[in-house]
Amino acid sequence: MSMLNKRKRIDFLYQGITYFASSISLIALAMIFYFVWSNGSGLLNLDLITKDYHAQYYNGELDENSPFSTMERPIELDENVFYSEKYGLGVSDGIDREGNPIILVVYVSSDSPLRKMQDRNSEQIISLEEDMLISKVSFNDKATALRTFGAKYMIDELDSAVDFREMVFTSIGGGIRGSIITTLYLIGMTMLVALPIGVFTAIYLNEFAKKNRMTNILRILVDTLSGVPSIIYGLMGLAVFVPLTIRTTSATSGNLISGSLTLAIILLPVIIKSTEESLKVVPDGLRQASLALGANETQTTFKVVLPSSIPGILTASLLGIGRIIGESAALIFAIGTAVKDDISITGKSTSLAVHIWSMMTDEPANIELSSTIAVIILMIVLILNIVVKFISKKLMKPLA
Amino acid sequence: MDKQVFNIMNLDLYYGKFQALKNINLIIEKNKVTALIGPSGCGKSTFLRVLNRMNDLIDDCHISGEVYFHQEDIYREKFDVIDLRTRVGMVFQKPNPFPMNIYDNVAYGPRCQGIKDKDELDKIVDNALKSAALYDEVSNRLKESALSLSGGQQQRLCIARAIAMEPEVILMDEPTSALDPIATLKIEELINDLKEKYTIIIVTHSMQQAARISDNTAFFLTGEIVEMDLTNKIFTTPKNQKTEDYITGRFG
Q: How far is CA A4 from the centre of its chain?
């Protein structure tokens, strides 16, 4: 009887430890989600992910040929919107993040001459759009209407004057479109390099390589590489890939190519390892069956073994993509920290994770926007996870 | 016409320093079923794998002696192993269909030999499935996964896959040991039909199976052939005491 009691107590203890451990990891995960969501959900909207980070300045003047007509005030406009029938323009007062007054464009009629202004600097056609800010309007025969005078004053002045000499307006910045595009580019370009090299290395190691010292050394090398801190890869990217891309392309600094190549090196051991694991679990019976049918080793590997290990390779890709999205230390060196809106693969730009880093090193640190970016990163990872699960299920169907 | 398919002379086989086969001398006759019996670890499966050189896959496996397939020594240098394996098919203990659909499983071997013509492949697949007595059960679901078949059907699919190569010899390594009695019976009937066209060498643990389906039987013990004769002689009047002990179930 006492033996049985002791047994029961030990079982209880062991089970308790597993419950305790799993609840700690669950709580930690929940806390991360709670922290970024409570801080960042406020800023989360479509504008954030579709708009530029840097405000664009425009100096517009009216096109001489554009006709004036009376445009009626749309009924859906709010009461606190000041409207000009002459220009079909609705604006309202507001304040920016630093507390300065701004004049926000709420409505511009599609017939408005403000839609087809000329840029005084570039002679290009520019258009005033909703959600832009008007800084000031200068006239030919009276004082300039500044944003500090308010929306009502600006509309009154616009209506009373014949026309204006110059309208200075800006787009709202703070969007992270550029960093999202950079991150997607990084994922695509890195996987393009790392996946084939990693998969073929794993195939060589597991299927073709003779068990000798060379392959042993190669394996140890791969294991070691996966343990190297990523900032060291970043240094290598800075020392090797950045000069290399500057010499061979039009790049003048860290760029998407050097960043992708550095990430590809980081990913190689991850992809090699997990592909090898998935090749190892392919039953030997399948290899033997193929060889016994007169297939050679190459046919066996590529027609039987590789297709069977595709779910494993997909998992490897997912791990790799997660690593790309999350990597910041290496990228600070290998691609740089400049937040950009126009992304080219030989130009400066930065990924979402590094965007967070540069927001947090600003003075004062922008925790809110950083958390919002974190929410977006988590969402991307979640979506990727679901997509890969779905694909591998689809691929597994004929196998199961 | 050449009646000897395989002629094995003074064959020794080593795994590293361990001698797995000792001085094997054996002739395999055309269009006969030859059963290899003996207790586990006696070398009968190893011997079977000598005949299509599957032992090549094992790193420290060495061989001495001669193995003639028709008049050709299959262990001479520069011998074409791929060609040998297209002429000597193999069915394994555990059904091991490829994770593809039924059609692709059967067409795998011919495709590896470069046959791409769809009509030709269709014909090969149909004939192979018919010969393996599987056609009626799967003809309307050729595009379904081979893994959706039952164990017995999978094993017959593996036989069809081997037949698709139109080999002269089919090696079978305990093909029914993972199957239930009904599936086993079907495979045994199939082997009976197949010996019209093919030479079959089968490793089996079941004495009854050897007695039912084989023409010749070789009894292996600790890497040696103790006795080799017509099956009904082995099972009725064995010459060697050890053979008698084994087939009457006194050991093994």
A: 58
**pLDDT 10s digits, A342-400:** 888 888 888 999 999 988 887 777 888 889 899 999 888 888 888 888 887 877 665 54
CB proximity B242 to A under 8 Å: no
Number of structural domains, chain B? Answer: 1
> Does B137 fall in a domain?
no
* Spatial contact of B89 and B199, defined as CB atoms under 8 Å apart: no
Interface list for A 197-226 with B (CB within 8 A):
211
Domain extent for B177 = 4-97+166-247
| Chain A, chain B: beta-carbon pairs less than 8 Å apart | 71
Instruction: Tell if the CB–CB gap between A294 and B96 is shorter than 8 Å.
Output: no
Q: Are residues A295 and B54, on separate chains, in Cβ contact within 8 Å?
A: no
Query: Under a CB-based contact definition with an 8 Å cutoff, are residues A133 and A105 in contact?
Result: yes
* Whether A253 and A165 share a structural domain: no
For residue A387, the domain's CATH number is 1.10.3720.10
Are the beta carbons of B100 and A293 separated by less than 8 Å?
A: no
Q: H or E element: which one contains A137? A: strand A133-138
Residue A94 is predicted with a pLDDT of: 86
CA distance to partner chain A, nearest, from residue B89 (Å) = 6
Residues facing residue A82 across a β-bridge:
A91
How many percent of chain A have pLDDT more than 70? 98
Reported as type and span, the H/E element at residue A155 is helix A151-160
In a domain? residue B59: yes
Helices then strands, each counted (H, E), chain B = 10, 10
pLDDT at A345: 85
Q: How confident is the model at residue B2 (pLDDT cuts 50, 70, 90)?
A: low
Q: Residue A149 pLDDT more than 60?
A: yes
Cβ atoms of A151 and A120 within 8 Å: the answer is: no
- pLDDT at position A173 is 76
Please report whether residue A16 resides in a domain: no
Select from A286, A295, A398 the Cβ nearest to the Cβ of B112: A295
CB contact under 8 A, A294 and B145: no
For residues B217-224, give the mean pLDDT. 92
pLDDT tens readout for residues B167-207: 999 999 999 988 889 889 989 999 999 989 999 999 998 88
Q: What is the mean pLDDT of residues B72-79?
A: 89
In a mutational test of the A interface, the residue from B86, B87, B103, B112 whose CB has the highest number of chain A CBs within 10 Å is B112
Q: pTM for the complete prediction?
A: 0.79
A292:B147 CB<8 A: no
Give the best residue of A211, A293, A303 to mutate against chain B (max B CB count within 10 A). Answer: A293
Flag whether pLDDT at A298 surpasses 90.
yes
Please count the structural domains in chain A: 2
Find the closest chain A residue to B98 by CA distance: A286
CATH code of the domain in which B183 resides: 3.40.50.300
- The domain of A349 spans 177-396
CB A341 within 8 A of CB A176: no
Subunit contact A291:B57, Cβ cutoff 8 A: yes
pLDDT, average across residues B7-16: 93
| Domain end among A138, A170, A202 | A170
- What are the CA-CA distances from residue B185 to residues A6, A360, B174 (Å)? 53, 74, 14
Quick one: tokens of A93? 């007062």
Q: Is the pLDDT of residue B120 over 70?
A: yes
DSSP classification of residue B135? H
Choose the final residue of a domain: A143, A170, A197. A170
